[in-house]
Amino acid sequence: MEGLTSPILTVEQAVERSSFFEIPSFINPQPAGDILKGMDEADQKIMSAEIRLGSQYHFCLETQTAMAVPEEDNCMVVYSSTQCPETAHQNLAKCLGLPEHNIRVITRRVGGGFGGKALKAMTVATACALAAYKLRRPVRIYNNRKTDMLTAGGRHPMKITYSVGFKNDGKVTALHLDILINGGMDADVSPMIPNDLVGALKKYDWGALSFDVKVCKTNQSSRTAMSPPGEVQGTYIAEAVIENVASHLKMDVDSVRSRNLHSFESLCCFYKGCAGEPEELTLPSLWDKVAQSSGYYRRTETIKEFNQVNKWHKRGISRIPLVHKVSVRATPGKVSILSDGSVSVEVGGIELGQGLWTKAKRMAAFGLSSIRCEGSSDLLRKVRVVQTDSLSLTQGGWTAGSTTSESSCAAVKLCCDVLVERLIPLKERLEQQMGPAGMHSVNLSASCYFVPDFDAMNYLIYGAAVSEYR
C-alpha cells in the first residue's frame, strides 16, 4: 500500500531511521571517570568487540488472569493477578470512563510475577473489566500458556559493542560501550532498563566508564520487566569483558576479577550518593569468605588436573561478585486489632512468593508484643495479612525492585507504634476491669505511610557466589 514504510525489525534498522524511546533525565545513567585518560593509561586495548543478547520468555506458574464483577452504583470490582494494583486501578478508571472511587482492584496473591505481572497484566484486566461493564455480568479471562508467552514480551534483546583498555597485570583502566536495546513497539518499562543495566555493570572498577545507550523502537512485540530487569544483561556484559581481558592476557580470569574489585574510593566514583561508609564495603571480605567456605582454590586445582587428562575441557568453576543498588520507596500499611484480640494487617505490597506476607506478619507480632496480655497465646498466630485492596489502602505502588518487603514492614511497624502508644496507658486498667479497649473509645486501627529518609533511600548491597559445572 502507498505511504506505508517497511517495518523496523532490528536495532540496526532503528538506528538508521532514528526510531528511539526517550530516556527520562532523572533515570538516565551517568558515566564515571575520564575515558580518554583511562585509554591513554592502558598498556593494551581490545577495540570494537561485540556481544549480542537474545530475549527470554516469562514462564510464570500462573498465566495472566483477571475477573471483573459489576456492582451497584456503577462500580466495578476487578480481581487481578498484578504486581501493581494502584496502576491497574488508574488504568481501569480511564478505560471505563469512571471516577477512581468506582473502581476496586483486589489482589490476593500472584502465582509468579517478577516483572511479568506488572504492566503486562493491564491488558487482561482492562479487557475483562470492559466486557463486564458492557454486559453487566461477571467476566473472567485467563490466557492459555501459548497466548501468555506470545503476549508477555519477555526480556530485552541487545547489541553491545565495547572497547576496553587495560594494564598488563589485568587492571582495566577504561571501558566504553555502545548499547542498543530492542524495546519493541511500546515503551512499557524500557526507558528504565539502561539505568538498571549500567548499575549492574558498575560492579567492577573499570577505571573510567562511558557509554552510549539507545532504547530502540521497533515493530516487534514490546518488551517488559523480567527480574532482574537490565541487571542480568549488565552482569553478563561485565563478565564477558573481564573474560575477554583475561583471555587476551592469558591470565586466570579469577585473578582479573579480583584485580578489578572496587575500593571505597572507586565505589564513590561509580555509585555517587549511595556508597555509604568505608566499613559498609563488605565485598572484599565476602570475596575471600566464599572462596574459603566453598573450597574454591582446592576445587580449581582439581578441575585443572581433570581437564589436563581429557581431550575436551569438561569442567569449570567461577567466582562472581555482585553489587546491587537498592532503592527504597514510600509504602502504605494498616494494622487493626479486632475485638477478640486477633490482628489484621494490610500492606501495599503483593505476595509473589518472596515471603513478603510472612515478614509483614512477623513485624506486626513484634511491633505489638509490648501490649500482649499475660497468659495470651502466641501473638504470631493471631495475625493475618489480608488481600491487597486498592480502595481500602491507597498509594500501594508497585511490588518491584526487591525492596517492597522492607518498605511494607517499615509501614507495619509505624502502625504498631501508633497502636502501642494508644493502648499502653490503658493496659493496666483494662487488665483489672477486664473490659475491651473499644469500650473506652480507643481507635484500634492505624494507617501509616512509610516515607524513607532521602539520604537513606538508596544504598548498596554486596554478594559473591561460586558455581561449578561439569
TrEMBL record:
Signal peptide start and end residues: none
EC nos: 1.2.3.7
InterPro entries: Ald_Oxase/xanthine_DH-like, AldOxase/xan_DH_MoCoBD1, AldOxase/xan_DH_MoCoBD2, AldOxase/xan_DH_Mopterin-bd_sf
Domain Aldehyde oxidase/xanthine dehydrogenase second molybdopterin binding: 289-430
Residues annotated as domain Aldehyde oxidase/xanthine dehydrogenase first molybdopterin binding: 30-261
Keywords: Molybdenum
GO molecular function, one term: iron ion binding
PANTHER family xref list: ALDEHYDE OXIDASE 1-RELATED, XANTHINE DEHYDROGENASE
Family of the protein in this entry: Belongs to the xanthine dehydrogenase family.
Protein name in UniProt: indole-3-acetaldehyde oxidase
